[in-house]
Structures are given as structure tokens and as C-alpha cells.
Model the fold of this input.
Amino acid sequence: MTAENEREIYHKLEAMKEIRNKTITLERLKRSILSEVRSGDQEGRCLAQYKREMELLQQEKMSHVEELRQIHADINAVSRPLCTKGAFPQFGSIPA
Done:
């Protein structure tokens, strides 16, 4: 082997080493990006589930509010006739 061939082989080996190092760096970057993408997807699913739960809780809240309105209306409907007939004098007379 001549000195020139050895230098050429040495340069090729150096180039291969550099390519290998860059490939390893790119593989690490790829794994990191994939991990971030998976994490983002998981967060998206969690947010969608949270939104669904919030909507269900809002519906349940409105159902309870309506139930309380109905109870209040029923109490008023029952108490007006009783108070106007004097059944509860401590509350006074409530006009019908």
C-alpha cells in the first residue's frame, strides 16, 4: 500500500466515523421527537376526555338547578294557600 492509498483510506474512515456520529445524533433526536409526539397525543386525548366530563358535569348541574327551581315552585304553591287561610299566623298574610 502506498502512502497516498493509506491517506485516502484514512480520510474515508474519518468520513464514515463522522457519518456514524451524525447518524447516532439523528437517531437520538428522532426518539426524542417521537416521545414528544406521543406525549402530545396523550395530552390531546386527556383534554378531550376532560372536556367531555366538564360537559356532563354542566348538564348534571343544570339538572340539579332545574330540580331546585321545581322544589321552590312547589313550596311556594303549597305555602301560599296555607298562609292566606291563616294556618301560619307567624308568617303573616300573603296575598294570593
